Amino acid sequence: MWIIELRFRPTPERLAARPAHRSRLTALHRENVVRMAGPLADDSGAVIIVAAADRAAVDSLIAADPYFATAGVDVLQVREWDPFLQ
């Protein structure tokens, strides 16, 4: 599993790109690739939990979604996670 941590800035580009991004995450959730996703309570960022074999697969997921390159969205970190409860 992998954690993608995002930071948001209040830009019109980010808000305009968000619906397509959420639609993509929903489709990936149906495929059991995205396990959980959502904004932080203060909307300063978001966390996305991804089931992927390796970092290259996570990087491909990020590269395929234009939201991650949108003004106002910063990928703070991508970390491998080893949960013992699911």
Give me a quick take on this structure:
This protein is α+β, with helices and mostly antiparallel strands and 86 residues long. The protein is built from two helices and four strands. A four-stranded antiparallel beta sheet has the order 2-3-1-4, covered by helices on one side.
Given the helix and strand composition, which structural class is it? alpha+beta
Regions with little confidence, pLDDT below 50 for 5+ residues? none
| Total strand segments | 4
The proportion of residues in beta strands is 25-35%
- What do we call the CATH homologous superfamily? Dimeric alpha+beta barrel
* Global Rg: 12 Å
Q: How far from one another are the termini?
A: 11 Å
Please write the CATH class name: Alpha Beta
Domain module count: 1
Largest sheet: 4 strands, antiparallel
CATH fold assignment: Alpha-Beta Plaits
Organism: Actinoplanes aureus
Family: Belongs to the YciI family.
Pfam family, one: YCII
Domain YCII-related: 6-81
